[in-house]
From TrEMBL:
The keyword Kinase does not apply. It comes from the Eukaryota. Pfam families: p450. This is At1g67110-like protein. Keywords: Heme, Iron, Membrane, Metal-binding, Monooxygenase, Oxidoreductase, Transmembrane, Transmembrane helix. Its cofactor is heme. Its main location: membrane. One of its GO terms (molecular function) is iron ion binding. It is found in: Membrane. It is a single-pass membrane protein. The keyword Membrane applies.
């Protein structure tokens, strides 16, 4: 099936998403990278996860993120001003910019660990893409191949960093006796977990954080790069 009409594509992706969904190959190819986040969910799981994440993307909430976007952009502009006359890889600069912004909006005061997380996810994405080529061979994902070992090691490191951020947020709430984990994406998901313990757990939160880090950074950095080139 190949669709090129925008209205038909819109209808397929909105009205028939539970039917079409993500294929087994897509889900297995990204399992070690973003797990079972919203991007790879199907059917009822997709509806449930979308409902959980929606409060982070309301108009008022996005307006609140603008200060982070402006601050990060100013820092990049100052850095580039120091390199006048030098050749600049604008694609890499846009990747750094979007990673900085997402680190701040997703993890707030833990944005330094978010940047470290971004570096690990970039490598993990490449390894998972390479390993996907072998999925057509039965049982290949269970073999202790070089790719599978590296993916497992990096995934463990990514989730260790995420757990440190989550535990730090929990400790802050406990010490300050606060009822809220913050208004960034991680804080909203943790608040949702406290209210819906049966429907959301720490692993799901980590998968959603990885998903939004990847999807938000990749598409935005490419769009900004293309816009500047035009």
């Amino acid at each position: 099936l190949c669709l090129t009409e925008t209205e038909m594509i819109k209808e397929l992706l909105t009205k028939h998403n539970p039917v079409t969904g993500k294929s087994w190959l897509q889900q297995q190819g990204t399992k070690g990278f973003i797990g079972r986040g919203l991007l790879m969910a199907n059917g009822e799981a997709w509806h449930h996860q979308r409902h959980m994440a929606a409060p982070a993307f309301t108009r008022d909430r996005l307006k609140g993120y603008a200060k982070h976007m402006v601050e990060c952009t100013k820092m990049m502009a100052e850095r580039l001003r120091m390199e006048v006359g030098e050749e600049v890889e604008i694609g890499e600069e846009m990747r750094r910019l979007t990673a900085d912004i997402i680190s701040r909006t997703e993890f707030g005061s833990s944005c330094d660990k978010g940047k470290e997380l971004f570096s690990l996810l970039t490598v993990l994405q490449r390894l998972c893409a390479q390993a996907t080529r072998h999925l057509c061979f039965p049982g290949s994902r269970f073999l202790p191949s070089k790719y599978n070992r590296e993916i497992k090691s990096l995934k463990t490191e990514v989730e260790r960093l995420l757990m440190e951020i989550i535990e730090s947020r929990r400790d802050s709430v406990e010490i300050d006796r606060s009822s809220s984990y913050g208004d960034d994406l991680l804080g909203l998901l943790l608040n949702q977990m406290d209210r819906n313990k049966n429907n959301l757990n720490v692993q799901m939160i980590m998968d959603e954080c990885k998903t939004f880090f990847f999807t938000g950074h990749e598409t935005t950095s490419l769009l900004l790069t293309w816009t500047l080139m035009l």
